[in-house]
Each structure stands twice: as structure tokens, then as C-alpha cells.
Design brief:
This protein has 7 helices and no strands. By secondary structure, it is mainly alpha-helical. The protein starts with a helix and ends in a 9-residue tail after the last helix. GO terms for molecular function: ATP binding; sequence-specific DNA binding.
């Protein structure tokens, strides 16, 4: 008897589950809920993308500001030492003067453009020319120091001075 009542209970349970799964109104409710969740997911993805773009802009602005601060500190420090002689043969001219002299050949390009993190084609050649000129005239500065001024890695400066018209840097 106990076995029959257990079998009857399992059968009733099976039929109830089957009815819930096969109910047509439930499938429509599920698809509506799925569409609602997909809409929420799309909204969250677009919000996330917008926030990512905002973060990238803020990081670029922060990098520009940091590079300007470093460059201004170098200019101020370089301005104090203009009369001093350098044992490496450099003239210790302020970075600002060196860059200004180079930028005369590149109208429309400013100091802010040179130290920015932008990679526009019109800025690459003047930026490299400025790096090369600073490297040649300020031998007291390391590649890393020049890289910090221009907000670039020291390997970028090394590639510029090795690749450019200035040769490998052996000439003064």
C-alpha cells in the first residue's frame, strides 16, 4: 500500500511539472522577461562604454598635465643653469628655447602639441625633431629624463636619436 501511494504522489508531481513546463502562457512570459533583461544589458553596456571613453579622456588629460608639469620643472631648472658650462660639451640651454627653435620650422605646432599624448601624423616629425635637438644640446639629460619631458618612454627617445637625421648621437 505504501508503494502505491508513493507512486501516485510521484505521478502527480510529474504531471504538475510537465504542465508547468508545457504551459503556453509561461513561455510568453519568459520571452518577455528575456527581452527585458536583454534591454537592460544593452543599456548597461552602453553606459559602461561611455564611462570607459570618459576614463580614457581623463587619463589622457592627466598624462598631458603631468607631462606639462615635468616639462615646466625642467624648463625652470634649465633656466637657472644657462650660464653654467657642462662637462659633456652641451650648452645647457633651457628646453623651452631648444624646442622653440625647432618649432619655428613647423608652423601650427605648439609646445602643448609636442608634449601631448596625441599621435597625429602632423605631430610626429616635429616631436621627434624636438627630442633629437634636446638630446644633442643637453647631454646632461638622460634618455629617461628627455622621455619624461616629452611624456614618452626612454626607448622611444633612443629610437628617435638612433633613427633620425642626427645619427646615433655620436656627433655633437
Amino acid at each position: 500500500m505504501v508503494e502505491n501511494s508513493e507512486l501516485a504522489r510521484q505521478t502527480r508531481h510529474y504531471l504538475a511539472v510537465r504542465e508547468r513546463l508545457a504551459r503556453p502562457g509561461d513561455a510568453a512570459g519568459r520571452s518577455a522577461r528575456i527581452k527585458e533583461l536583454e534591454g537592460q544589458l544593452a543599456d548597461l553596456a552602453s553606459d559602461n562604454e561611455a564611462k570607459g571613453r570618459r576614463i580614457a579622456r581623463l587619463e589622457a588629460d592627466l598624462a598631458d598635465a603631468g607631462a606639462r608639469l615635468l616639462a615646466q620643472a625642467r624648463i625652470l631648472l634649465g633656466g637657472r643653469d644657462t650660464g653654467a658650462s657642462n662637462e659633456d660639451g652641451g650648452d645647457r640651454a633651457p628646453i623651452e628655447e631648444i624646442v622653440a627653435a625647432v618649432l619655428e620650422d613647423f608652423p601650427g605646432v605648439s609646445w602643448d602639441d609636442i608634449i601631448s599624448v596625441r599621435r597625429e601624423r602632423r605631430l610626429v616629425k616635429p616631436r621627434h625633431a624636438c627630442m633629437r635637438a634636446v638630446y644633442e644640446r643637453r647631454r646632461d639629460l638622460s634618455l629617461a629624463g628627455i622621455g619624461r619631458i616629452f611624456h614618452r618612454d626612454h626607448t622611444t627617445v633612443l629610437a628617435v636619436v638612433n633613427d633620425g637625421g642626427a645619427g646615433s648621437g655620436t656627433a655633437s
